[in-house]
């Protein structure tokens, strides 16, 4: 068994296709670190000029109409909310000027909470204009989420008192960049890498049938070894990507694992903070289960269909399937949580963003692990059963 494991291991990591996958991942990591990360512009950034413009506009308005009587109700409403708003903006401006970052963090947390409470149900006020760009029909909802997220994040900074920096405030540090990517397309990149690394893990044996007959091992044991090698190889796809994160860390700081990560609760309609370390560990576990899922698909299809194209096609369809039925708010009237394909964007499940946009209570980390894990286990059982049949022998 050990001899077969070593042989499969050597075959996997000397496969030219697999080497090419790792090289492509390294290239993507370097490109992201040197080209994409430096030009990242968050919607909620430290913009003193913008703060001063808001403060000056509101201050001039208060001075011009503050002493008048019998004003329009809209003017009276503005006079009621602007003083507190300006007080918070003034505190933020002065804190940045004095580099009193703790004061800035505290004032910013209050500013986002106060702003969101005023804007969310207002028909006249709006969130940051960048939420409404590109014809976004859900700009108001996205602004509500963004302000709640940022308010919760700065509250966590105030409570945890990490090493403050402008890069930290704008989520540019290496760990925060990793968090942002986990909430976007990094899991999909890892899944596609897993598929390409594993797609021929069984069918390549057709090239060496006589050599493989020298290993007197049952087919199901061969498949277990192949699955283990594919899993190890897929997990190692993190290594070339880590090069990019090291470069970002050297440029903008690495952050630390105690940083707050806001998690949205659809039940309570509010955010709570999870530590960065816990967030990354949960993502790692969920991604690992997904990798096992794709390996199980490939092993089963390789036994039944014996065509690499089918392995590739079916696996990629699983990744793309959510885009075929995705519709904002659909969780309120469909059972979207029953489909394993709804959990592909792992970070968005853990952060609660999927619950928010789909308006669902059930798209949770726990449900995702149960559903994807159960599907993986079922496919493994089917693979074991099929491997016992002489019709589906690995080597004729």
Structure description:
The chain starts with a helix and ends in a 9-residue tail after the last helix. A two-stranded antiparallel ribbon has the order 1-2. The protein is elongated. The mean pLDDT is 92. The longest helix is centred in the last third of the chain and has 29 residues, at 276-304. A hairpin with a 4-residue loop joins strand 1 (260-265) and strand 2. Helix 5 (101-119) runs antiparallel to helix 6. The chain has helices spanning 2-14, 16-36, 48-65, 73-97, 101-119, 139-160, 166-169, 174-182, 186-198, 209-212, 219-235, 238-252, 276-304, 308-325, 346-351, 353-358, 365-387, and strands at residues 260-265, 270-275. Helices cover 66% and strands 3% of the residues. This is ABC transporter permease. The chain crosses the membrane at residues 20-40, 185-203, 223-250, 284-304, 309-325, 368-386. Keywords: Membrane, Transmembrane, Transmembrane helix.
Brief rundown of the structure:
The protein has helices spanning 2-14, 16-36, 48-65, 73-97, 101-119, 139-160, 166-169, 174-182, 186-198, 209-212, 219-235, 238-252, 276-304, 308-325, 346-351, 353-358, 365-387, and strands at 260-265, 270-275. With 396 residues, it is mostly helical. This is ABC transporter permease.
**Terminal-residue CA separation:** 20 Å
Question: Could you give the order of strands across the largest sheet?
Answer: 1-2
Structural class: mainly alpha
Which residues sit in consecutive blocks of at least 5 with pLDDT less than 50? Answer: none
Keywords: Membrane, Transmembrane, Transmembrane helix
Transmembrane segments: 20-40, 185-203, 223-250, 284-304, 309-325, 368-386
Protein name: ABC transporter permease
